[in-house]
What we know:
By secondary structure, the protein is α/β, with parallel strands linked by helices. It folds into two domains: 5-127 and 313-324, Rossmann fold (3-Layer(aba) Sandwich); 131-308, 2-Layer Sandwich (Dihydrodipicolinate Reductase, domain 2), CATH 3.30.360.10. The chain is built from nine helices and 13 strands. The chain has a seven-stranded mixed β-sheet with strand order 3-4-2-1-5-6-7, sandwiched between helices. A six-stranded mixed β-sheet has the order 9-8-10-13-12-11. Helix 1 (15-26) packs across helix 9, helix 4 packs across helix 6 (202-215) and helix 4 (130-146) crosses helix 7 (249-258). It is globular and about 60 Å long.
Amino acid sequence: MRKGINLVIVGATGLVGQEALKILEDKDITINNLKLVASEKSTGASVSFRGERKSVVGISDSVFEGMDFAIFSAGKEISLKYAPVAATKGIVVIDNSNAFRMKRDVPLVIPEINADDLKKHHNIIANPNCSTIGMLLPLYPLYREFGIKYIVVSTYQAMSGAGKRYLDKYDMESRGGETNGYPIYNNVIPQIDLFEGNGFTVEEMKMFRETRKILHDNSIKVDATCVRVPVVRGHSESCFVKLNRPFKVEQIRNLMNEAEGVKVVDNIDNLKYPTPSMVASKDAVYVGRIRRSNIDEMAVNMWIVSDNIRKGAALNAIQIMEYLI
């Protein structure tokens, strides 16, 4: 790469920020100036990056001076307050929160699907929800080949998707301590985020709305049930996909296996299918249990698993930045 970049990572000590640093360690991206920004309780800490110790600083308007890119992974409130500040300074912001995803002039991008949308950004780009990324990456080649009428999806989402506090909650409960709300230890919780007026949660409606925006197709319908499960890392999804044209199951398998960023692990004779522990720290989205529906011959069922911290957040953001570079 001929020219280096100046990069700010906001939320550098969080799960996604730490994963971004791990990914950047191995990327062929020259970084002239790297600023690590976190909350006040992390200010003054140091983080190792490419053989050097980098100090963590608190967030302020001044941290964005002279920078080229900012990856935000510190939650919606921080993004709403500081992303516009960075953008007005000419910095390209890639935001992992849901602060800007449905804004009309903000691209919502999975680079393998709609990188062309990056040509229209106004210095703020949104990373989709981790479950949406995991679902759409393998379904996109089917959408192009056959068209999709609707998707019925149930997610089994890891605790890390709710951040470190949720992992701490599990740890406390596993040692016999009590925490507020429904326990996650030895339990599953059929609610992620608040409920909307239609009975679906915000998380479930994100999958509906984001799918339409990313594919630029408001005809697709998505019914989602999002569930938190006691898994540390890796979101799983059971998908029923109604296609618009006839298909052969082997066509489905081949299309997904050839898609960038997708890996098919589907050999039931040898009990081969993806699981969260298998895909942890892997870049690809994994698919298995591919089979025609017993209910509708125009529909296919499948099981999708991806690392929610990696491709579901940090890696997707860095891929966006690579495309722009």
